[in-house]
Amino acid sequence: MATRTKTPVDRAALLRRATLELVAERGFRGTSMSAVAERAGVAAGTAYVHYDSKDELLIATYAEIKWQLAAAAVASLDRQASLEDQFLQLWHDAYRHLADDPARARYIIQMEASPYADAAHHRVMERQDPLVEASAEMAGYVVDLPPMVVWDLGFGPAIRLAANPDRELDEAGLDTLARACLRAVKRPD
User: What pLDDT, on the 0 to 100 scale, is given for residue 1?
Assistant: First the structure.
């Protein structure tokens, strides 16, 4: 008789997912460590085993969401395509990834408008981000503004649209919006 080994439960991942869901539903103030632990199905003290504080958990959750978004956005990127086509592909793939789970988009929106934004951004940048790398190749193609401004002009509408699934656009509408975002960040010819 073969012995079955139990797959270890990634409690830290459960806590990050619970945090994502609760923040998307209730905001930062409505998300306590005890509520996160309860949603994750772990003991309250377990949250503090993995994260020193609610702030640390919020930032770790944001970093995970952004890394997953970056990976999804560049997964099928054709680096041989024109920069315009690369931007549009990144935009559409980022939108689709977020639209598959609108809570991720709502979390990004809340985090980027919060006092945690700078610390969260620094955490994301500590790790090699494939979306930042792809964007760096477009540096001469986009307007000379701070990266967060270019990010917001270029991808902010995709994030906000994905956060509100009731505001769905068809493919033609999505392409029109993606092209409008491209015009907002593209250097004048």
Answer: 58
Where are the alpha helices (H) located in 51-82, listed in sequence order?
54-74
For 137-189, write each residue's pLDDT tens digit. 777 888 888 888 888 999 999 999 999 988 778 999 999 999 999 999 999 87
Count of all residues that appear for the chain in the document:
189
Query: Which residue carries 């956060």 as its tokens?
Result: 163
CA distances from 139 to 79, 109, 126, 142, 143 (A): 14, 24, 20, 6, 8
CA dist., res. 19 & res. 171, Å (int):
31
Query: What is the Cα–Cα distance from 161 to 98, expressed in whole angstroms?
Result: 9
**Tens of pLDDT along 8-60?**
779 999 999 999 999 999 999 999 999 999 999 999 898 999 999 999 999 99
Which pTM was predicted? 0.89
Token pair 């632990």: residue: 37
Q: How far apart are CA 102 and CA 42, in angstroms?
A: 24
Q: How confident is the model at residue 52, as a pLDDT? A: 93
Task: Tell me what the pLDDT averaged over the chain comes to.
Answer: 90
Are 28 and 63 a contacting pair, CB within 8 Å?
no
**Cα 129 from Cα 151, distance rounded (Å):** 14
Residue type, 179: R
Joined tokens for residue 131? 């979306």
